[in-house]
Please model this.
Amino acid sequence: MSTRRTKMFHLLKNLFFITLMAFSYQSMAANKTIQVIDKGQDGNSRYYTAACPDGTNGSVVVYFQETGNTEVSPQMLELTGPVGTGTSPKPQVIKVCAAVGSDKEQCKGGSWSVQDAAKASCK
Model:
């Protein structure tokens, strides 16, 4: 191989790796999902931790009316949809709160989903 071909080969090889790295970085940046972890129930409240894409943690609390059940499962509160709108056997959700920032708590009625509250706690 001549020197000119060798230089061209190295240039193309480097360009390929730079392009490959740019695409892999872009796909990693697009994968910013929030993982919601159920931490359990205490009385009329169910607690969740939100694992944020930036490595921090947020928290979400769902307050519901007391029911005859001693335990309200996360499935009863539907993590992704509006939580418990009062139809049986779901408990009536009073409010959903998210810890936003270091000292603030933002609460909404039962129409706020746990996933949306987790997104708010990660901002």
